[in-house]
Design goal:
homodimer; about 90 residues; alpha+beta; Mth169, Chain: A; elongated
């Protein structure tokens, strides 16, 4: 399994994150002063995760999974055994 | 920074993941046979990430960030230096 993580670009407002941060504040949680919300994709792979598969995942991430105008691909990596089971 | 990862429950359909998998297939990408789409939250912490902060993050994850009827909290952990910089 390959994991792809996509987050809104740091220089952009993140209304969903702002909403969560506001809710946390109203609920009395003071440990956190900012929240950003992104996406986590699990790509299930046919066969073993080779370098070619990771390269393809990287290409897919940048063309299909993330909108590079407003988002960054933070990470493309093979899932650990623990992550693959979750 | 604390990272919280939330995914749709395995036993539920994930229409967004199905749509991505269909698009991959149509675009000729044959390495992947399934996609699931979840969320990744970055919680920025005031001060150091202590056990108390992680416990609070876990509670926030299960009450506010995930809808436990249809989603699982996959992971609540301190971000590595590399992840925090991204």
């Amino acid at each position: 399994m390959v994991l792809v993580e996509v987050m809104p670009k740091a220089e952009l407002l993140d209304p969903q994150g702002k909403a969560v941060a506001g809710a946390l504040h109203r609920l009395g949680s003071s440990a956190f002063d900012g929240v950003r919300v992104g996406k986590r994709f699990e790509l299930h792979v046919v066969g073993p995760v080779t370098d070619a598969v990771l390269a393809e995942a990287r290409q897919v991430a940048e063309t299909l999974l993330a909108n590079l105008v407003i988002e960054d691909v933070v990470s493309v990596r093979e899932a650990t055994d623990l992550e693959a089971r979750a």
